[in-house]
């Protein structure tokens, strides 16, 4: 089977030459392991950080080794009690066609409950990030005005809709194209949205949120974060989920320059990692699953076909070519 290796550590924007698709023998599963043929894999922003050789909350990818990440596949050989050939599993052996996975790291998923790619997106890690980030980290409460950046992406589109469903007074989103802005307004029910490429974020946010905001869900950092600090009301909260505008920079950004406002406004700025919020998983699955079934929560996916296109999908996601979760589907 083929698998993707990182072969050089990117400086700034990754290049296709930093990666290689290599052939590897398909291994036999050992005791308590399954052999999985992958059907879908996830490309996520945090993977950019793992390409740097720095200590972080997830270990860096090793050069000339297969990369990994979220994937869903079909069990084709099993030495695990409770997992049979033909079962579908969510696991972490992505970036490759075949994966040997320890039984305790494979979660059985039902394609009858939700389409398989949903377990990587709207009902998966990004979905839980949105749910936990808004409800727990940002302490969202009914009546809050919420601003979310990256609002047409996997996490952001769910943040905005959950806020709306839970009684936000106003939901504002920013995204990188007019088409995405239209989607936020017409399909996801945002009250206001703007294209951050079309003018200063602070000015556009002021127009979109004349009465200020109570929560900022940050996916982007930099100029967005500065604009949000400027617009937050007293006792406002910021959930710092991601800062994608900075993942490929080689020099530290200037913004936010207005941090002193945190004092007078008594703002709370809190970083988050989705792994800390696993206890919300059942509640998330129940509540968001219900909204999807009832047609109250909408989602998009951008699906790129073929393992050979996985790096292009990853780079495309960093450039904003996705609407909703970026997924790679393997040839059947
Ligand atoms: P998305 O589906 O949102 O895809 C990334 C999007 O980022 C692109 O589509 C693009 O949309 C936008 N983007 C890229 N560059 C910029 C830029 N310079 N300024 C503004 N927007 C930009 O990805 P996810 O939903 O998976 O992740 C969203 C954020 O959440 C990321 O920051 C990620 O790191 C973070 N995250 C954090 C987790 C945690 O535990 N802390 C867990 C999961 C995700 P556009 O066209 O609008 O520019």
UniProtKB/TrEMBL annotation:
Superkingdom of the source species: Bacteria
Keyword terms of this UniProt record: Oxidoreductase
Occurrences of domain Enoyl reductase (ER) (ranges): 15-328
SUPFAM superfamilies documented for this protein: GroES-like (SSF50129), NAD(P)-binding Rossmann-fold domains (SSF51735)
Keyword Oxidoreductase: yes
Coiled-coil ranges per UniProt: none
Entry-linked Gene3D superfamilies: Medium-chain alcohol dehydrogenases, catalytic domain, NAD(P)-binding Rossmann-like Domain
Protein name as annotated: NADPH-dependent curcumin reductase CurA
Organism: Streptomyces demainii
